Amino acid sequence: MLTSSLREMENDGFVLRIQYNEMPVKVEYSLTEKGKSFLPILYELSAWGMKEMRGG
Q: For residue 55, what pLDDT band results from cuts at 50, 70 and 90?
């Protein structure tokens, strides 16, 4: 499931995947500029959720 989600985010341009030719295989993921531009939206959703959990 995680691999599928990461591939989808990579295809959508939200994350960058770098694979190193080592044994065992090493893969790193990082946010692209497009991914970073989505962070303020996630922070707002988080703040809203926390507020709603406290009863509004």
A: confident
